[in-house]
Design goal:
heterodimer; A: 748 residues; alpha+beta; 6-stranded antiparallel beta sheet; 12% strand; disordered N terminus; B: 6-stranded antiparallel beta sheet; 21 helices; Dolichyl-phosphate-mannose--protein mannosyltransferase (chain A)
């Protein structure tokens, strides 16, 4: 098992050892003794039964964990083919095993862990993970699935412990655990080779350790205090290292830390030096440590992936020089650009690619019917251009001529090597960006017209300087129209082979879209220099890969007319995600939450807001509450508030995102809202019981309420199963937790 | 009885001459030679179009903001007697004599002029000195960018006016709260706050930010009210209710009112009809209403109909078919059924007519009495001109291979049977036996054999399909989407038995009478939704800029250039004011943090009331700047320097507040030195104003040398003629 799991188990062990002091130290910070009183009031006073109680808690935790593992591991090997995004993340795991470089919009930790799990369980990285539905056959995929499933299973005990710590109430914790164990969505999402179980594991672990460390606040700088604080930091690094969604839990921990520090700062009994110590400890454990770990994951990532692979073209020329197998690796090319050189020209903006042309014309109705010019991300012989003087067509490579360098401000012609057409522009509108001019390939064997002339300029340099390969940032200015060669980054339709549009923009604003560099450079008349000087430093690599990832993420836009999932669909369980079953395979797996759990969660949030504001207003009006209610309302406001904040942080930012969204993005938020449900119903039922006063009836109400909720969560599950068994029994082998996509048609 | 006669009627007027003088100066600076230049300046070209539409009462759709702003400008045109006849097509075009330039520009200019005394009032109501208040107003007065923006037919100055008005009336409310809650003036200011907020929102969506800020401050104050235990519960409840009504209910009602007036004014069909649904179009005079007027309401077996796709993207279009068949083999080697093409066609055409047929009968005419089609009925759709039946089958669609091809069935005798039964699914039904209604019903056609749904894929077919839009049968994702929903637009009962007669009938226009109207709320929600989702694809402009450029004034916008001389108008700020306002914000934030930390350690540098004053000023002014500025970092639309002006105005208000705060904490000697510095700084700002004045008013032609000298920043784009 990877170390992360070991950490989690150690955590639970420690918790129980310190269980007692934790509950005595119920209060976080501040002068509220009432919470303490409330927490104590639930405890059996008899000291003899303490051992018994501790053992009981142990047993419950073990039971919860066992049940969670049992559900998640049940028939884990089915379906024995690729489901949904396994095709991406399995493939990326294989890349780590094969050490080939690739590009993905998510940070590397999650995929590295998947790769590691596969490596340790004997998967050799040979399976190609081509598309969903492909059979695994003899390849060993169980290691990777098992790893994800075990992280997914740990979510339930983590939630259990978090709620227990926040509410000091066993029923609340049990209710939460039941909600999550019996939720079909969490179950399905935990069973496959995906990043989500890993991400949720780190998020929940961070939340748990934060809550634990809050309850150690009365013994600052003790060993457990340091332990939980640094564990929080480690988990934050983990969450961010898997997906950028980890930022939300960082915001939550940050908010908690700031308010904590604010309280300490206002506590006049503490000297400024002590407050300074507190601050330093937080900075060390919550900023420096996670950053170091996060950077370390990238260091490992770049160290492991040292072979050229499918992700090369996304990165700058200098970056590619690191990768063995890339043509820039250990390469040596002439340093200064000269007339007659054969070159490739790369756009400086990430993920745009090389200037490209091919023997296809723009279709009728799209500008002039001349040869297409595009940008293309992959290396190809159609990316080669010859740089020539504008006025002569003589071959500059003729040995009788002296070498003549291209200088800043020269008027040049770019001839496409394969088709001998010149880079050309004119007053026709570009195919997609209507305000720009069209760029074409024009002329025969290098003879064209004056619209083929471009002025080559180096950004921020003086006129007359030579142009350096790779390092000079150059612009091409069209002589006749005065526009600048650029790529709009828009994808051309089918006629353009879905390559990117190249235009000549009349707006002279300096953007990266219109700046290029020369990458390959072939000129037999010039001496070669080694490119090792270009090797970027680690911080540069780190920065560049982040830029590429962010751009990649923003580039994931929904296409026109594509059915996308909207954030408001998620909490109401409006539409699920098809995991498997497109190819009429035996297994239909559909990611869909358990409606009872999800709608209960939704109801609970509304109820929480209502009851929370009633209590807050009552307290602001200075109403005198009995100590029992006071304690409960503190649990509701503080503990519940933390969880509500978590839900909001993991949900609302998605409304602002322009990228394409999927249903599974909601699951971290769903965990928080389930925990809130646990805390809320327990507290509400206790309040109900208290208001009815008569003791036997009161306890009864609480017990009955909790039990019925537990049963409700579990009950709907088999019913589900039956329904879809009925539906599928004729043609399909049902899988216990898998939802059929037909479920959607059922009348609600 | 006549007691009031026993005492003389006395009117005591309290006139603050400062305010009067500031108003006069404001009017002078904003109204001076208002009708110069007599040419279209920058965005007037857009707003002018809308004014013309209002004058002619033609319906239009503009995604840039709610209608109040345009209506106010149109009011100016109406008062000036504008008839709407002007071709707004080019910036710099000379206005013809029928355009009342002065009255069109009057309203924004008045709003800009009144902002000056309002700045004074706000700082005064924040309980700072008259001197500081005067300073704020004088800064607003000489801010070149605000002057330029106010003197033209643009909306920013009106937005700023309502922003300031909302803030001012809220402050007045706060100050009368202490002494006389529920008095007449209290109610007046409370209501005015709500009204001003809704007007700000009604002019530009940006106004929402100020509205939210005011709501936020009001919420904090209300929370303190709740905590005030000297008030009875009933009293607190009354306070809360009054605020809820004035700040939540009134703005919503006002906002609806703007749309109501807008829709009442624009009652004729105009250039953007196509984007709206058929029902909406039918509610306008002319256009579709002329065609659909008098159509039978209920679709019956034998009805002849045209079916419009509800989604309307990429273009609004109608279900269409024609003689041509799908090519046997596509370019990429896949095969087709080679049956008759079914497409979606964005123009009116006789080939858009379909006949609703009962599968059990052969006849294509309407019985008498007509048998209406209901939700859940199985129908066939017959293409009017070719009499072929709408069909789909398990063949991949030409451009969307995951979906089924839709065709009009031709029997080639190749064991590919017709599958032409469709179940009618009325999406917006109220009962399960609802009748299919013209225009009103939104329907889906669910294929009986394969449960595929008739859908517009949005892709353009290649040349063989005449670049019309592809129609497919969607099987994989049957969830609701507007591209699967259709409605009947033109409709008549078929009368002709013979094909020849029927073709003639299809060519003839529909008639009969019966009219129907859409409720206001339905029209409002549709219009609002379309306004928010209408997409403008031009994302690039020569003078567009990023929010980061604004703070440092790294960009300008050339608004207008005289056709012959080099007189020109630029949106260019007073750089001294911009820089010092930003500096003041930084100083404010630093000081606030410092005080907060010290207070937390129980060291109170400021007395309680002065602290509260300091915080409130910051919350409104620095907060106003932040909420009007920071959201732009998240926006993806094209941004211009003028988007920063509302934020800038709030920042300027903060400047004298910070200055006075500093001066209050200086010794006597230092204070006089400080005052001298402030005076020097202000004269410096005046000097900059004066230097940039030719570019603000555009009244003076400068020589190329002078223009070059004005180009203080590399990035300023000042137009210099090459030959003069």
């Amino acid at each position: 098992m990877p170390p992360a799991v070991g950490g989690g188990l150690a955590g639970s062990e420690l918790r129980v050892r310190r269980g007692r002091c934790g509950s005595q130290a119920a209060r976080a910070v501040g002068p509220d003794v009432a919470v303490e009183a409330a927490a104590r009031s639930h405890k059996r006073p008899a000291p003899g039964s303490r051992h018994f109680e501790a053992a009981g808690r142990w047993a419950l935790l073990a039971l919860v964990t066992l049940l969670s593992f049992a559900t998640r591991f049940h028939r884990l090997d089915e379906p024995p083919h690729i489901c949904w995004d396994e095709t991406h993340f399995g493939k990326m795991g294989s890349y780590y095993i094969n050490r080939t470089f690739f590009f993905d919009v998510h940070p590397p930790l999650g995929k590295m862990l998947i790769g590691l799990a596969g490596y340790l369980s004997g998967y050799d990285g040979t399976f190609s993970f081509q598309k969903p539905g492909d059979k695994y056959e003899h390849h060993n995929y169980m290691g990777m699935r098992g790893f994800c499933a075990s992280l997914g299973s740990l979510l339930v005990p983590f939630a259990y412990l978090t709620v227990l710590e926040l509410s000091k109430s066993l029923p609340a914790a049990l209710l939460t655990a039941a909600l999550l164990t019996f939720d079909t969505g969490c179950l399905t999402l935990s069973q496959y080779i995906l990043l989500d179980p890993i991400l949720m594991f780190f998020i929940m672990a961070a939340m748990l350790s934060m809550v634990k460390y809050n309850s150690c606040a009365d013994r600052p700088f003790s060993a457990p205090w340091w332990f939980w604080l640094s564990l929080t930091g480690i988990n934050l690094a983990g969450a961010l290292g898997v997906k950028f969604v980890g930022l939300f839990i960082i915001v939550q921990v940050g908010w908690n830390t700031i308010s904590d520090l604010w309280h300490l700062f206002g506590d006049l009994s503490l000297s400024l030096v002590t407050v300074g110590k507190h601050l330093t400890a937080r900075i060390l454990c919550l900023i420096v440590l996670p950053l170091a770990l996060y950077t370390a994951t990238y260091a490992v990532h770049f160290m492991v992936l040292n072979k050229s692979g499918p992700g090369d073209g996304f990165f700058s020329s200098a970056f590619q020089a690191r990768l063995s197998g890339n043509n820039l690796h250990n390469a040596s090319i002439p340093e200064h650009l000269a007339y007659g050189s054969v070159i490739t020209v790369k756009n400086l903006r990430m993920a745009i690619g090389y200037l490209h042309s091919h023997r296809h014309l723009y279709p009728e109705g799209v500008g002039a019917r001349q040869q297409q010019v595009t940008t293309y991300l992959h290396k190809d012989y159609n990316n080669l251009w010859i740089i020539k003087k504008h006025n002569t067509n003589s071959d500059p490579l003729d040995p009788s001529f002296p070498v003549e360098f291209v200088r800043h401000g020269d008027i040049i012609r770019l001839e496409h090597k394969e088709t001998s057409r010149n880079l050309h522009s004119h007053y026709h509108e570009a195919p997609l960006t209507r305000k720009h001019y069209q760029v074409t390939g024009y002329g025969i064997n290098g003879t064209g017209d004056s619209n083929d002339f471009w002025r080559i300029e180096v950004v921020n340099r003086k006129f007359g300087n030579r142009i350096k390969v790779l390092r000079s940032r150059i612009r091409f200015i069209h002589l006749v129209t005065g526009c600048v060669l650029g790529s709009s980054g828009k994808v051309l339709p089918k006629w353009g082979w879905e390559q990117l549009e190249v235009t000549c923009t009349p707006y002279l604003k300096e953007t990266l879209n219109s700046i290029w560099n020369v990458e390959d450079h072939i000129n037999p008349k010039l001496p070669n220099i080694s490119l090792d000087v270009l090797q970027p430093s680690f911080p540069e690599i780190l920065l560049e890969s982040h830029m590429v990832m962010i751009r990649g993420n923003n580039g994931l836009k929904p296409k026109d007319n594509e059915f996308t999932s909207k954030p408001w669909h998620w909490p109401i369980n409006y539409q699920g995600l098809r995991f498997s079953g497109i190819n009429d395979t035996d297994f239909r797996v559909y990611l869909l939450g358990n409606p009872v759990v999800w709608w209960l969660n939704l109801l609970s949030i509304a109820l929480y807001l209502l009851s929370g504001s009633i209590i807050a207003v009552a307290m602001q009006r200075g109403a005198r509450l009995p100590p029992e209610v006071e304690g409960l309302s503190q649990v509701l406001l503080r503990g519940g508030g933390q969880l509500l904040l978590g839900w909001m942080l993991h949900y609302f930012p998605f409304f602002l995102m322009g990228r394409i969204l999927y249903f599974h993005h909601y699951f971290p938020a769903m965990l928080f809202s389930s925990m809130l449900t646990g805390v809320l119903w327990d507290t509400l039922l206790r309040l109900c019981a208290w208001s009815l006063a008569s003791s036997s009836l009161a306890r009864g109400i609480h017990a009955v309420g909790i039990v019925s909720l537990l049963l409700g969560a579990a009950y709907r599950d088999p019913e589900h199963l039956e329904m879809h068994q009925l539906l599928l029994s004729t043609t399909l082998k049902p899988k216990q937790e898998a939802q059929s996509c037909f479920f959607h048609f059922l009348p609600k | 009885m006549l007691g009031f006669l026993q005492r003389p009627v006395v009117v005591t007027a309290d006139i603050n001459l400062n305010v009067v003088a500031l108003t006069a100066l404001g009017l002078l600076s904003r109204l001076w030679r208002l009708s110069y230049p007599r040419a279209v300046v920058f965005d007037e070209v857009y707003y002018g179009q809308y004014v013309s539409f209002y004058m002619k009462r033609l319906f239009f759709l503009d995604g840039s903001g709610p209608p109040l702003g345009h209506m106010l400008l149109a009011l100016g045109g109406y008062l000036g007697g504008f008839d709407g006849n002007f071709l707004w097509n080019r910036i710099g075009a000379e206005y013809s004599s029928n355009v009342p330039v002065w009255s069109l520009r009057l309203l924004p200019a008045l709003a800009g002029a009144l902002s000056v005394p309002m700045a004074y009032q706000i700082v005064w109501e924040l309980r700072f000195s008259h001197c500081a208040a005067m300073g704020a107003a004088l800064l607003v007065l000489i801010e070149n960018a605000l002057i330029t923006q106010a003197r033209l037919m643009l909306l920013e100055s009106v937005l700023i006016f309502f922003n300031l008005l909302a803030m001012l009336s809220y402050l007045k409310l706060c100050n009368s709260q202490k002494h006389r809650p529920f008095s007449l003036s209290w109610w007046f200011w409370l209501t005015l706050t709500g009204v001003a907020c809704s007007c700000a929102v009604g002019i530009k969506y940006m106004g929402v930010f100020t509205y939210l800020l005011v709501l936020g401050v009001a919420a904090v104050h209300a929370w303190h009210l709740i905590g005030d235990r000297t008030l009875s519960n009933v009293c607190v409840l009354c306070h809360l209710l009054a605020r809820a009504v004035a700040l939540l209910v009134i703005p919503v009602i006002m906002y609806l009112l703007f749309f109501y007036v807008h829709l009442v004014l624009l009652c004729r069909s105009g250039p953007h009809d196509q984007i709206m649904s058929s029902a909406f179009q039918a509610s306008l005079e002319g256009g579709l209403a002329r065609i659909t007027q008098g159509q039978p309401l209920e679709v019956a077996y034998g009805s002849q109909v045209t079916l419009r796709n509800v989604f309307g993207k990429p273009v609004p279009c109608w279900l269409h078919s024609h003689q041509n068949t799908y090519p046997m083999i596509y370019e990429n080697g896949r095969g087709s059924s080679h049956q008759q093409q079914v497409t979606c066609y964005p123009f009116k055409d006789v080939n858009n007519w379909w006949i609703v047929k009962d599968p059990g009968r052969h006849q294509l005419v309407v019985n008498s009495p007509p048998r209406p089609v209901r939700h859940g009925d199985i129908v066939q759709l017959v293409h009017g001109m070719t009499t072929r039946l709408l069909n789909t089958h398990d063949v991949a669609a030409p451009l969307s291979p995951h979906s089924q091809e839709v065709s009009c069935y031709i029997d080639y005798n190749i064991s590919m049977p017709a599958q032409n039964l469709w179940r009618l699914d009325i999406v917006n039904r109220e009962s399960s036996t609802e009748v299919w209604k013209t225009i009103l019903s939104e329907v889906r056609f669910v294929h009986v054999n394969t449960s595929a749904i008739l859908k517009l894929s949005g892709a353009h077919l290649p040349d063989w399909g005449f670049r019309q839009l592809e129609v497919v049968g969607e099987k994989l994702s049957p969830g609701y989407h507007e591209s699967m929903v259709w409605n009947v637009e033109e409709h008549r009962y078929g009368r002709s038995q013979e094909q020849k007669e029927r073709e003639l009938e299809l060519h003839s226009p529909t008639q009969m009478d019966l009219s129907r109207n859409l409720s206001f709320m339905a029209r409002f929600s549709e219009l609002q939704w379309r306004m928010l989702t209408v997409r403008s694809d031009d994302s690039e402009h020569k003078y567009s800029s990023t929010p980061l450029d604004w703070v440092t004034l790294d960009t300008n916008i050339a608004y207008w250039l005289h056709p012959t001389t080099s007189a020109q108008i630029h949106l260019l700020g007073n750089i001294v004011i911009w820089a010092s306002a930003s500096l003041a914000t930084v100083v404010y934030v630093l000081l606030l943090c410092w005080y907060l930390l010290r207070r937390r350690r129980s060291i109170c540098d400021l007395p309680e009331d002065s602290w509260l004053r300091w915080v409130l000023a910051g919350a409104l002014c620095a907060g106003g700047w932040a909420v009007n500025y920071l959201p732009f970092f998240l926006m993806e639309k094209t941004l211009f320097l003028y988007h920063y002006l509302p934020a800038l105005t709030f920042q300027i208000l903060l400047l004298p507040v910070v200055l006075q705060h500093i001066s209050d904490h200086l010794s006597q000697l230092q204070r006089s030195l400080f005052s001298a510095l402030v005076v020097a700084w202000y004269s410096c700002a005046c000097h900059v104003f004066n230097t940039l004045r030719p570019l603000t008013y555009g009244d003076k032609s400068l020589s190329p040398g002078e223009l070059r000298a004005l180009r203080w920043k590399e990035s300023w784009d000042i137009l210099i003629r090459k030959h003069q």
